[in-house]
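Hi P.,

Sorry for the delay on this. The queue was packed all week, but I finally got your sequence through. Input first:
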Amino acid sequence: MKKADFIKAVSEKVWMSQDAVSKVLGGQIEVITEELKVGNEVGITGFGTFKVSHRSARNGVNPKTGESIQIPASKSPSFKAGKTLKDGIK
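Then the structure:
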């Protein structure tokens, strides 16, 4: 399902215009991104928790050349599904 399809499905479910749903979804994504940027977790009861995972620097191997390389530390967003969501898809 693409974003436009998702917006259409939600607008039909909650009887709101697609424009209004699009604005709400955009606002949610902005708030989650801003909170993760400063290191906070965002938990939505029944859905799940968004947080930032930290990966430390490590050594790796270039698969093309076999040469040893240094992989820098990084941060990436992660999501852990809540119990209600897990139970809903079983």
